[in-house]
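Changelog note: in this version the structure field was regenerated for every chain. One regenerated record is shown below for reference.
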Amino acid sequence: MQGDAQPGQQVPAAGRASRRGRRRLPHISVRTRLITVIALVSALGMLSVGVIVYAVERQRIVAQIEERLEVALESARFIVEDGEVGSGEWASATQALAAVVQRVAPDDNTGAMGIVDGRAALVPGVPLDVDLQDFSGLVPRVIAETERSGAVIGSFTFEGDTIRYLATALTIEGSPAPNTVQFVMAYDVGAELREIDTAARVFLIAAASAIVVIVVVGALVASRLLRPVREMRRMAERISGQALSERLPIRGNDDVSQLASTMNDMLDRLDGALESQRSLLSDVGHELKTPITIVRGHVEVMDAANQADVEETRALVVDELDRMGRLVQDLARAAALHGPAPVRPLQTDAADLTEHIIRLASATPGAEVTAGEVADVVAPLDGERLTQAMLQLVQNAVSHGDGEIVIGSAVVGDSIEFSVRDHGPGVPDGDKARVFERFQRGGERDGGDGADGAAPHAPGSGLGLAIVQTIARGHGGLARVGDAPGGGAVFVISVPLGARGMPRPAAPRIPATPTTNPGDAAASSHDDGAPWPRS
């Protein structure tokens, strides 16, 4: 089994070379890659178009040569058949050949001649681009081919020049010798094709210029589009766990700008998470410092020989440890609400849920629960989390009120509100805005398992109402506190109904299984949730 080299061992040369090779890989930016790809695709596209057009045009020229030669053959036959001055007769084959040669329509890159007695004897009266007499060996070949087939279209190459020629025998019966002569007309294929070579060179120059323009424009566009990405990289290099306040500018409405917006949202969440973490650590340190100081102070001054002092100190230490244990438990419960899916809403019968909460709250020691208004609606709710939050509010009301509690739910506008009303002293106006924050405690509402116990020896952890607010926000809603008519406080969890909110069906509901153990119901205020009826 091979592993990393141990101290004192030599790394194999192949491994060192491999790592050096990896280190020497050049860094190629995304901008360079984009521009390279754009240039290559443009070049390949233009090259493909040029090759296809060149091949099609070349084939068209070759076919056009064939067509012109066939037209020339038909013209020669017509002249011979028409005869001299339209008489239909010729005095000699040589005379007919001269007429055909002289009447050939001159064209670019063409040549013509007449063959008499096996030699080139007649040429057109005007100079043509191709002198067929220069093509040695053409005359014997034409004579041999016309003797076999009378008329032929073929190709002939001499000293690198290729011509496409028409050769036909002209025979005049009764003509003085010779009565058979040959007419030849040819096109210089290379010269014809060189005309499109010029166009091809122009196309290559234009294509190269176009590629340069595409690369320049692509570089400018790529630089502009990738600017936010470069800013993200530079900002990521500058950013640290202590400095998350910088944000990317948003320009435009394309994918890159949306990426920048998403990056800013992520930084907002990170900033909030770090700030929450720092605040939590500070608060936890502050909360733990008090019981630790109390325990240490009493242990230091405890008289070990005095049994009564030992018992008293032991009771105080156990009490403070219990308080720290509740704090840790509530911290774990609060952390669970910040997981990937802390709230799982399902279509839930709000009336069933409210009645189930009332039954559980009635088993809470010291609580005298009265049912209030019940909302007849089915809405997307997480029953377990709402039950946990409502029982927390019940425990808070028991701790700070006289035990008389009213629990209900109602549809208010586009939201459904679950409420817990107590008959205690209420919450001062100055504390209402901060009572749902972690470790915040109102001056008049001390003790209890809620978030607002303030006394150093109060059993509350200071996290209860913060957990309630987290559950409400997980539903897209909010928790608040107000003054109840006639005195006391009313705590409300407001949750949006959403587009799927609907009246409760008229069919009879199956009641939730009642709690058989009052102790279990009381303990459920400290659990993550309790069983609840679903629609």
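Spot check on this record: Residues 28-238 form one domain. The first strand starts at residue 110 and ends at 116.
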